[in-house]
Amino acid sequence: MRTLADVVAVIEELYPPEAAQSWDQVGLVTGDPAQQVQRLHLALDPTLAVIEEARALGADLLFTHHPLLMRGVHSVATTTAKGASITNLVVGDIALYVAHTNADVASRGVAEALAAACGLDVIEPLVIEEGRPMGRVGELPERISLREFASRVSAALPPAPVGLRVAGDPEAQVCRVAVSGGAGDGFFGAARAVRADVYVTADLRHHPALEAREEGRGGPPFLIDAGHWASEACWLTWAADDLRERLGEDVEITVSELCTDPWTFTVVATQGAGPGR
User: Fold this and answer.
1) Is 257 annotated in some ligand binding site?
2) What is the pLDDT of residues 154-183, one digit of tens each?
3) 41 appears as a binding residue in the annotation
4) Going by CATH, does the domain composed of 110-231 fall within 3.90.1300.10?
């Protein structure tokens, strides 16, 4: 029987806490290191629905990518979502462990999982921040149109309601691809510096994305916003496989089937509609 301390030690071999960015909050959030762990549940976000899913599965440990307590909290009353989450974890006797930016940069971490989903070979770090390789850049086996590449990425990532947003000429040929899971509009300069034809990331805001396209004068790097959840959730199966390899049959490992993308549907713009109409 594995204790929580045993399982945490294995997790931290894969995703060392010291590899996290200085602003990040990773590690054990709830739980007693001496408690036993028979079932581990993996998810991207520790939402109320995910916690309920973990309780229904009889999980002893919920392992998520995104932190529950990123900033200061002054109350854990159930009148707030975070308070209700903490209460549900404690009442359900579920430990919560978080690996965030340390999982982004790890070997077989979030960035490499996204690069693999995009079909890249010869993967290298996109940029170094605080001494850590952030994002990845690599090559496709052959040059293909931006439209075809976006279709392949869409098919490879977990399905999310919003899908992909693409900026660029659909028929432009692309081969060199930069990726960064989650919010990545801080790496536009890095994508240009490595001469990427297209940059795959998420959470692209209007002004930074517009300025990036202006800098490219309409050419590369083209942009694909794959959505925060989808661009990172592709890592969960890798994490599950790596944990199973190390924990063996001692711990049952499950992966959440819930899509925690906050958006639920899109409305296609009416053709011809525009400002003033």
Assistant:
1) no
2) 999 999 998 999 999 999 999 999 999 999
3) no
4) no
